[in-house]
Amino acid sequence: MAGPVLQMRDIVKTFPGVRALDGASISVSEGEIHGLVGENGAGKSTVIKVLAGVYGADSGSVTLDGQPLTAITPANVHDAGIRFIHQDLHLVPHFTVTESVFMGQEVAGRFGLSKRQMRNMAERFFREVLDIEIGCGRLIRDLTTAERKLVQIARALIDDKARLVVFDEPTAPLAIGEIEKVFAAIRRLKAQGIAMIYVSHYLSEITEICDRVTVFRNGKDVAVFDKISDDSAEDIIKAMVGRELGQLYPNRTHAAGEPLLSVRGLSDGNRFFDVDLTLRRGEILGIAGLIGSGREELVDTLYGLRKAKSGTIELADLPLKLSKPADAVGKGVVLVPRDRRGDGLVLAMNVMENINLASLEEVSKLGWEMRGAARKRAEKLIGDLDIRPTNPDAIGQTLSGGNQQKVVLGRWLAIDARVFILDEPTAGVDVGAKVEIYQLIEDLAAKGAGIVVSSSDPGELIGLCDRILVMMRGRINHEIGTQGLSIDQLVAMTTGAADFSTAGGTARSAHAG
Amino acid sequence: MPDSVATRPGGFDLRRAVGMAPVAIFVAMLIYIGFNAPNFLTWSTIQLVLSQSVPVVVVCLGLSVVVMAGGDDVVSGGIDLSVPATAILCAGIIAQQVTLAEQPLFLAAMLAFGAALIVGALNGFLVTRIGMTPLLTSLAMFVAVVGVNNVITASRRIDIDAPLILFLRDDRIVGLPAGVAIALVLCVVFVFAIHHTKWGLNLQAVGGSREAAEVSGLRPSHFLFWSFVIAAFAGFLASFFVLARGSGSSPGTEDNLLLEMVLATFLGASFSPRRVVTVWGAVLGAVLVAALSIGFKSMGVNVFWTGLIKGSLILIVVALGAASQRMR
Q1: What is the rounded distance in angstroms from the CA atom of residue B269 to the CA atom of residue A153?
Q2: Relative to the CA of A74, which of A4, A493, A497, B291 has its CA 20 to 30 Å away?
Q3: Which positions in chain A touch B205 (Cβ < 8 Å)?
């Protein structure tokens, strides 16, 4: 085999007061999917930004196809055939697939845009390179998230000059069934000899799709795995955290008590139907389901963000009329939303303000906020939850994903809630912070709170919950205890494979590990 | 596998219905007028409607470009309320120079052109460099420009009988009133420039998602700036049709122009299959609005009521637009 396509050697990058990269190296070969993993702050995104020309490195070398890359600017890097698939989709909702693929690189003749030619090129690309039919005249806002991701990939590759493609958390917004579509596209690119760097927190995906994996820790590559199997995840985690990671999931000390929340025949008439569920004190109840299964809509309805058409929600035999979230909060039902940047956290406010947002009355007198009391409470919770930085004045936006999530949880801890509804509680959170959030959930249950966890990560549901409700096409298809349940079995149920064959028999486990 | 989350099989598509509602309301009103106003659906009335709509059509060309570059959020997106004021200012300058100062029309037009460029560049500068919101910037600019026009014309009516203006008013080209025919050519040019060129598509991308445009290597401020300059240029072009329609410049014309421009442009969004503001949608909207005005007149509806009806229509159109966006 020829030499590596990309070689980054001994890259050093310092910011005032921080050595973000401390001699980091990574090397990627033709037709290779190279995983890049590490905890938040390990230097993954810094090294990618050095490659993209966003940051200039202090020292170190970058070679592409053996040729040293000097003057690394975004334009030069693009011309050299290095492409980036950002985590955010960056698409215009009312543009067609074709217009989106060619955005900024339109084909035009003397008489204006060559619309037909662009459409033909886009159609051919989807058909021949990615092997899917997508309908190039459709609008972005009518596509599924996975399809949008494929449009984004097509945009980076349509000029046929890509040598190396960097994927940053490509599956973060996708459901299990959708991930496979994006993976299929990535494997097609691999077959065509394109080198790829795959940055992700989802280790199960890393072990499924990557050929080799480089692990970053403290701004350095600490391990390279040349052979990847499903069993590699444990070794990769060890390399990432640099210590034995006890157990990802906490020991169960909670025990279910009397019923706390009961839902009967709940329907929104559109996305979910006839949902019955009972949540007990001290119980962690999981809800599994693909995007589109009605899981998100059910969770929103439980909290009053969406209106129910029929059915009842009762809280300890107290009928609950939910028409807006404030009703729920008043009764001690709280939500930690999936989109914590959009719905959960006021990004422009500091940690103290965010924590006290739901409990302002308690730190207020006659409408005046008592800053001293608010600060004291914030400092206590920051300590309890191990939020970093420990500064209550830090702005929400500057926190890492895990710490943002802890702030959102902290807000509800400040008001002694009885029912917690957690929607994707660890999406985009690194392993270390995950363990802490899991422990926090366990502690809440042990204190007698009832907890609903809605998640697309089957490992998390099994590791954390007592029971799991599996939703499919708007209905609860299975209700199952987690004792002895395997990830394969759960995935088979969420994808519907279990309904047609013996459990786990044919289902792919996208998240195994 | 539940693939198509966005499309619901069968059933009533509320989002689509809300998006279509403004057009439905308009068509219903026109049908009502058609039955109640004498001779409304005749070729001569239609020609009158087209002629009357021309100034609004041309300012709408400008506004639609700004909205497409800035996004169709009515508060934070792109909008240029100053276009009608620019048109009135240019008309005032031309009339004052030609009739009172007895300058040739070409020279007067050049002066007006320069004034329009200054307004457009100033709008663009304030929005892209200083970071002001287009709504406030162009509202203030509207008031200031009208003020300048009042100074120049001393707030009086000035007649004009330059040959070009009379040609626009009275002559015909291939069976159409000359003004209508020439406005039609302008529309074709704008539709081509915005909907069929790379630059135009990039401008729409900037309006659709500024971040997406930036990631694709486009410079949003470039497109925003030029959209305001183009809008002012449209105001300059509109001044000729304003002069032709009124046989001169008269103070106070800008208010109605502003109202109809905003109504027409956002109404036009409901014509587009994507429910976004487009050049041709705005043009169609302008013609519909003119038809409505003339229809009310020929039905003998009190002028004061017409204002109330138009204002309410703007509210309805914008509210429905916002509602259909929220449903996305």
Answers
A1: 30
A2: A4
A3: 92, 95, 99, 103-104
Q: What's the pLDDT at A275?
A: 92
**What whole-number distance in Å separates Cα of residue B73 and Cα of residue B200?**
19
Chain A interface includes B2 (CB < 8 A):
yes
Instruction: Please report the domains of chain A, with CATH numbers, ordered by start residue.
Output: 6-241 (3.40.50.300), 259-499 (3.40.50.300)
Closest CA to A405 of A352, A493, A349, A337: A337
In DSSP notation, A458-491 reads HHHHHHH-SEEEEEETTEEEEEEE-TT--HHHHH
Backbone angles phi, psi at A367, to 5 degrees: 85, -10
pTM: 0.70
CA distance A382 to A98: 48
- Beta strand A6-15 with A18-28 is antiparallel
Interchain contact, A113 vs B215, CB within 8 Å:
no
Pairing relation of β-strands A284-288 and A467-472?
A: parallel
Strand partners, A398: none
Q: Which two tokens stand for residue B166?
A: 């009379």
What is the token pair recorded at A371?
């800053």
Which chain B residues are closer than 8 Å to A75 by Cβ?
Answer: 217
Rounded to the nearest integer, the mean pLDDT of chain B is 88
Q: Which CATH architecture has domain B47-318?
A: Orthogonal Bundle (1.10)
- Encode B97-136: b = buried (16+ Cβ within 10 Å), e = exposed: bbbeeebebeebbebbbebbeebbebbbebbbeeeebbbe
C-alpha–C-alpha distance, residues B69 and B221, integer Å: 10
Segment B21-25 mean pLDDT: 82
**Least Cα separation, residue B180 to chain A (angstroms):** 25
Q: Are A423 and A337 in contact (CB under 8 A)?
A: yes
Residues in B touching A93 (Cβ below 8 Å)? 208-209, 328
Task: With beta carbons less than 8 A apart as the criterion, state whether B68 and B207 touch.
Answer: yes
Q: How is residue A398 written in tokens?
A: 């500057």
Cβ neighbours around A357 below 10 Å, total: 16
Contact flag A91-B212 (C-beta cutoff 8 Å):
yes
Q: Which residue on chain A is closest to B5 by alpha carbon?
A: A292
CA atoms within 13 A on the CB side of A208: 20
Q: Are B216 and A151 in contact (CB under 8 A)?
A: no
**Do the beta carbons of residue A47 and residue A11 sit within 8 Å?**
yes
On the question of pLDDT at A20 being above 70, the answer is: yes
The structure tokens 């009275």 sit at B170
Torsion, Cα B175 B176 B179 B180, to 10 degrees, reads -160
Q: Tokens for A145?
A: 């998230």
Residues in A closer than 8 angstroms to B197, CB to CB, are 108, 112-113
Q: What is the mean pLDDT of chain A?
A: 82
Q: Which residues of B touch A495 (CB under 8 A)?
A: 1
CA–CA gap between residue B4 and residue A74 (Å, rounded): 36
- A121 C-beta neighbours (distance < 10 Å), count: 20
Return the closest-CA partner of residue B257 out of B172, B176, B165, B145. B145
Question: Of A307, A299, A310, nearest to A335 (Cα)?
Answer: A299
Residues in chain A: 513
Out of A78, A104, A292, the one facing B2 most closely (by C-beta) is A292
A164-168/A59-64 β-pairing: unpaired
Report the run of H or E that residue B78 belongs to, with start and end: none
Helix (H) or strand (E) holding A166: strand A164-168
Most A CBs within 10 A among B4, B5, B188, hence the mutation to make, goes to: B5
* Residues of chain A numbered 112-131 and touching chain B (CB < 8 Å): 112-113, 115
Q: How many Cβ atoms sit within 10 Å of the Cβ of residue B323?
A: 14
E strand intervals along chain B? 158-159, 172-173, 176-177, 248-249
Residue B327 has pLDDT above 70, yes or no: no
Average pLDDT for B106-121: 97
